[in-house]
Amino acid sequence: MATMSRSGYGSENEDSTPAMRRLRRLSLHLLQPSDRPAPEGANSLVPAACAGKRRAGGLDADVAALTSYLRGRHRATQERLYRFFVERPELHTPVELPMAAHRELCLRQMVALVREAGVRPLSLMADDPAEYFAVMEAVGGLDISLAIKVGVQYSLWGGSIINLGTKKHREKYFDKIDNLDYPGCFAMTELHHGSNVQALQTTATFDPVTDEFIIDTPNNGAIKWWIGNSALHGKFATVFARLILPLQGKGGEPADMGIHAFIVPIRDLETHAVLPGIEINDCGHKIGLNGVDNGALRFRSVRIPRDNLLNRFGDVARDGKYTSSLPTINKRFAATLGELVGGRVSLAYSSVGILKVAVTIAVRYALLRQQFGPPKQPEISVLDYQSHQHKLMPMLASAYAFHFARRYLVDKYSEMKKTNDEDISADVHVLSSGLKSYITSYTAKSISICRESCGGHGYAAVNHFGDLRNDHDIFQTFEGDNTVLLQQVAGDLLKQYQQKFKGGTLSVTWNYLRDSMSTYLSQPNPVTARWEGEDHLRDPKFQLDAFRYRTSRLLHSVAARLQKHMKTLGGFGAWNRCLNHLLTLAESHIESVILARFIEAVKSCPDEKTREVLKLVCDLYALDRIWKDIGTYRNVDYVAPNKAKAIHKLVDYLSYQVRLVARELVDAFDLPDEVIRAPIGLQSEAYAQYTQHIGF
């Protein structure tokens, strides 16, 4: 490489070198990739068509056909809800709103949804989970605080009755939760414990004399914290506490039966006054979601009837005898938490919707905004800059990939609720953990990139990125911290790995490991490692094999490392020593699942032109992910240097090709203006709407 002068530029005599001539040409012209990746050793750069013009031979995207294929079964329900709220401007959330007013508006929105629009979310969740999640996405498009408040009322408070209670609880509470007569909350998290639910300290001690449980907060660390709907509106709480049975332990000591769930009234149904023995304080203003009233609860010898124990997995008789169909505390705990995966499914589902909104605003603005251009020629759209394409096009491809992954997740969840099959339940638990973690983390990063890509106008509150970023940020934490959830995925992969080598069967989502582990244990093929043709790189078999090979390699290597470190560090120490490796493994597996669902969706598309467009987007998603982790593939010679370079060039080319249909791809999301809300992201007259908002 030529030595740079102290000023940072090459000296004059270096101007004649091929490298400097190339740099000068790049500095004088705006160039796009050619129709195909340039052959190795090519000396010339081929100019491309200018901004906004369709390249000859490029794909034509039919928005109507794309929209039709993307639409779920319950799009009509969503459109009805959009119309309902559009026609009621008093229920619209303004850009600037004090916390107290936002909370009251959010409550009015939820009441209107149930009592005026006629939606019965708890019935939907029980009978048709797919429609319930569609409703959640629709209300979240209007105000994410509303979606979370609805989720607390129905997924958490109502879901605990459905999933952890028995017939007597459903008969008493179901209808009144559904129609909002019984607003409630879900009191699991404590000041000192969030992710480690088994270490919760709140107690529920059985009193055999009065046939009651006594709920107590033994210390400040056990105060229930961040409890949505509790600060102002909730009248009941599902409280997670340690079930204590007096005199039933060793030597007549109290017996701790582990974490159970209890229905605890917290406010008077008529006066709304806080009940005796209960102290509720407001958690105050948050970074986002200020339409949700999060509170902190302390219990001082609060007595509840024995029937208020949600007793699906464990019960206490009148004489104080404990019974359960599950033999150990750990199994009961796993069963209890396993029934609460609906919240994770809902967050993954909603996060995809939020990503679509952010990408739509950023892409539309990038097509609208014109800056710079070749000398003495019109300015060009910022989306014609390669750097901008690299920011937004893989993100747009990911939004499509996640769309089909969430459809698969909801289908599996619905199947689980219908069949109660243990294997499917285990599969959904890990799948929901992985997709919730991966998608919400990706969306959080992407919102900031979209804001940045819109420059100064992206910083205006009216253009929605601030609300999206602040409201969505906590998705990475509640319903399971993302790092903790990825560890659950890694743990399950290791369990499947052990079963594979013991001759056991693998669950449906993991059965690819059988073949890819065999491939991994053999040496990479030196011939295919060098193949660089476009047809080969865009072959879904190559792409999926590469994803799965990486997962198998990570799984095999981390299993060996864990076995080695366990000898000196023990199980916990070995896990901690390999933790980053385990997290990478979990993410790799989830990416494999996402790609497999995307490839299947492309194959299943009935319209040929739409299938071609989706194939282009899928190729970009797959190859961009391979390129981002190219070091892994290079280190084990799965990809030779020439092939790595070809992948890089092809990602450039595919990003440009996707840019040519970017408008159609975001329009196919079919998001109404009431969901986009950002003037710079509207389909027409964006600048006019923006200036109007300011007052011109």
From TrEMBL:
InterPro entries: ACOX_C_alpha1, Acyl-CoA_Oxase/DH_mid-dom, Acyl-CoA_Oxase/DH_mid-dom_sf, Acyl-CoA_oxidase, Acyl-CoA_oxidase_C, AcylCo_DH-like_C, AcylCoA_DH/oxidase_NM_dom_sf
Signal peptide range in chain numbering: none
Limits of the Acyl-CoA oxidase/dehydrogenase middle domain: 185-302
Catalytic residue positions: 479
Domain Acyl-CoA oxidase C-alpha1: 338-493
Reaction it catalyzes: a 2,3-saturated acyl-CoA + O2 = a (2E)-enoyl-CoA + H2O2
GO biological process: fatty acid beta-oxidation
Similarity comment: Belongs to the acyl-CoA oxidase family.
Official protein name in the record: Acyl-coenzyme A oxidase
CC cofactor: FAD
Sequence positions that bind FAD: 189, 228
Originating organism: Hordeum vulgare subsp. vulgare (Domesticated barley)
Ranges for domain Acyl-CoA oxidase C-terminal: 539-682
Keywords per UniProt: FAD, Fatty acid metabolism, Flavoprotein, Lipid metabolism, Oxidoreductase, Peroxisome, Transit peptide
Gene Ontology cellular component annotations, sorted alphabetically: peroxisome
Localisation: Peroxisome
GO molecular function, one term: acyl-CoA oxidase activity
